[in-house]
Amino acid sequence: MGHWWERNIVEPGKLPLLLALAAFVLTFVVTRVIVRLIRAGKGPFRNVKAGGLHIHHVVPGVVLTVVGGFGAVASDRHGAGGALAAVVFGIGAGLVLDEFALILHLDDVYWTEEGRKSVEVVVLTAALVLLLLAGFSPFGVNDLTQQELQDRGGALTAIAMNFLFALIALSKGKTRIAVFGAVVPLVALFGAVRLARPGSAWARRFYGRRPRARARAALRAYRHDRRWARPRRALQDWIGGKPDPRPVRLPGRR
Which sequence ranges are marked TM in the entry (predicted)? Predict the structure, then answer.
């Protein structure tokens, strides 16, 4: 284990990336726990205010991201400075992306349906970083044996093919499958061989003169969304908290 750690994490300089990912995920989890406790009125935590201004945690997140980013650029990725900068950057990125929806909408939509975008972005970001971390790259590792070169060559070929399938799935409008398929083998292949979603680039290019294909794609997308909408919402609620119910507007009132 120690030999594998040294050759695949430390020697290629992936330790800062691993520390940044760990800090990113841990910060998101801790932040969500704290804000849910604040929302429920439990525990010692309170919203931070300066006068009557609510200071969102994206503000210190931006500061930490800037400090950690410049610190990582100025540091040696094999040294302690690079590791510390990676942790600071990961914490800042976790705070910022936890309020991604606020930045996107320029409004406090944390506990609304629009706020679910923050959870999706955090999960997708963690998946992409995990892909970079788990990649079997031969660059940066010295003294590889012929067998190791063959093994890594095969791994790189498999990753390249999987990435190609992920791109096809993305062109078919299947963003989540494309992202997770880039990390989990065969998921991208599953998305690449199935019908494209209506309105996707693939559907516009290849289904334009095929009305039956368009109809089948629309029906399959409808059935898929109806089947998986509730489990997906339940998972998002479990991770990020249940949004506030939308206010009911009476007819004739604005």
Answer: 15-35, 55-74, 80-106, 118-141, 153-170, 177-196
